[in-house]
Design a protein that fits this description.
It comes from Gulbenkiania indica. By secondary structure, the chain is an alpha+beta fold. The protein is built from 2 helices and 6 strands. The protein has one domain: RutC-like (60s Ribosomal Protein L30, Chain: A), CATH 3.30.1330.40.
Amino acid sequence: MSKEIIHTESAPAAIGAYSQAVKAGNTVYLSGQIPLDPTTMQVVEGGFAAETHQVFKNLKAVCEAAGGSLGDIVKLNAYLTDLSNFATFNEIMAQYFAQPYPARAAVGVASLPKGVQVEAEAVMVLGA
């Protein structure tokens, strides 16, 4: 099975040795997105909620570049530097996803790139 590298200017460029996403068959593996504005490559301001919205906007852009949507995500992994923000993350996630929600893990971590508070990665299945 061949793999296709997914890239869009509508999401932040990779800041390391990785691709925004890789498509293998009808499965797309989306790299972790942090709350970078894709135009400026700067972390968005406004606190945890603003960061979380930007993460989902970035994931949405990569999904669309791969020919899908957030609704095609079957697994989401979220990383938060402060688990007291978990309820806020849930509230914002519900604005971007409809039931049935994807499978998900939420993990508390000590730190994330560029000092951000949240990162999320996903697996999407096209035509699911």
